[in-house]
Amino acid sequence: MSADHALVERLARARVLVLGDVMLDRYVYGSVDRMSPEAPVPVLRQESLRAMAGGAGNVARNVAALGGKAVLIGLIGDDAAGRQLAEMLGGEQGVTVRLVTDPGRRTTVKTRFVAGRQQLLRADDETAQPASGATAASLLDALDAALPAVDIVLLSDYAKGVLGDEVLQPAIARIHGAGKKLIADPKSRDFRRYAGADLLTPNRTELAAATGIAGEDDSSVAAAARQAIKKARLGAVLATRGERGMTLVAGSAEPLHLCAEAREVFDVSGAGDTVIATLAVALAAGADLAQAARLANTAAGIATGKLGTAVVRPADLLGALQARDVLATEAKVVALETALERVAIWRAAGERIAFTNGCFDLIHPGHVSLLSQARGAADRLIVGLNSDASIWRLKGPERPVQNETARGIVLASMSAVDLVLLFDEDTPIELIRALRPDILVKGADYRIDQVVGADLVKNYGGRVLFAELLPGHSTTGTIAQMGGSRRP
After folding, report:
1. Where residue 304 falls among pLDDT bands split at 50, 70, 90?
2. Percent of the chain, pLDDT > 70?
């Protein structure tokens, strides 16, 4: 199990407190087939309605969907939308709701009108005045009561009033006083308001507004993040950059630039909520910042492929990680030209290259042992794999049992193997001549005069390594025990 897969399995341990602006997200779905005769606007034929918790409410929903436990503290009005929102959130498994009602404000409602995959319009109904007086005190009281039972606190600021001056600075002081980690998703262009946060997660527009640095490329985004860290006394900054991915800047470490996960984008609303929820849950589950950022990046890609302010679940993450692993595995099976490019990079870094070859028809412990010994003798291991046609000529029409695609994928999935190259010839001499490996590896059942390419490798200063064999393991023996096999 990979480290990322293991992390997903641990997410259920996380206990996250979410303090911020809750809102009701409404979606009006329909179709457009004509323009209005009254104005140059499309006419939406309404077909369905959908409502869900947005803002900090969606953050809490994502925490719970990932398997963690969320405590949500927010602010609603004494109105129908507020009651609907409270009822929705109260029914969310894994979310403990602590909503403060302020009769003097309206519950924030965002209504989006959508035709097909196109959002036509968003209408907002809200009161954004900062919480004060008894309302601010009630929010802080709820925070005090929840802090002992959580691992990390997430401030979800949508500038709708919860995190005004009477709440934000006192909340940060109390969070620090309780010894809890703090993530803040900012809305204010003055990042000093979030001073002391362990991690700030601005998008590229917010980062540019706060620092005056446009952030058009990796280096300028990193520079802007460093300026924000210094100016606002932050622990780290994770800048979300839309289609350009994310950049993590923390301490003296090199910036970590993460490419956006490639997938079809359906709806970007709520993707930021998914990012910060995943970050919080991952950190609470024991991940370091870099690992948490990578998982959040994967979650963002999943969220943008869903409809509306949707949540991401562990099964979604595991599926995406598995797909990524498959792509990485397939990327190891390359043509000679690609292999030569990678070998040049490895050699420039001072790495030693080992090479071995074979049919690897049915992988058995003997193969695993040989590959492990080969990789242990060098920094990189390249495997030359006989093509189907080559094996037919060498071993007869009943072989191989598995075709070259299957054999290549199985080999590439092994951690000891760095590259796999197919060859059609009877021997790998042309591959050896082109790659010029430092170490040529064969099984101990060979003599030096039987090793193809041995003289060539020794002449340019390389060496031949004979790997110890595990007795009782062979593909031929396995096939015999199976009673023979037909070629696929």
Report:
1. confident
2. 91
Using CA atoms, how far residue 471 sits from 38, 445, 446, in Å, is 85, 11, 14
- CA distances to 102, 189, 289 from 147, in Å: 23, 27, 22
**pLDDT of 483 above 60:** no
Length of the chain in residues, anyone?
488
273, 316, 388, 438: the active-site residue: 273
DSSP state of 308: S
pLDDT at residue 263 greater than cutoff 70: no
Q: Are the beta carbons of 26 and 109 closer than 8 angstroms?
A: yes
The whole-model pTM stands at 0.70
CB atoms within 10 A of CB 306: 17
CB 222 within 8 A of CB 213: no
Q: What is the CA radius of gyration of the chain?
A: 29
| Active-site annotation holds for 273 | yes
3-state secondary structure of 345: helix
Residue 266 is predicted with a pLDDT of 45
Q: Nearest Cα to 264, choosing from 238, 237, 301, 298? A: 301
Query: In this structure, which long-range contacts are made by residues 140-145, counting pairs with CB atoms below 8 Å and at least 24 apart in sequence?
Result: 140/167, 140/170, 140/171, 140/174, 142/73, 142/98, 142/100, 143/17, 143/19, 143/73, 143/171, 143/174, 143/175, 144/174, 145/98
What is the DSSP pairing of strand 109-115 with strand 22-35? parallel
- Number of Cβ atoms within 10 Å of the Cβ of 156: 30
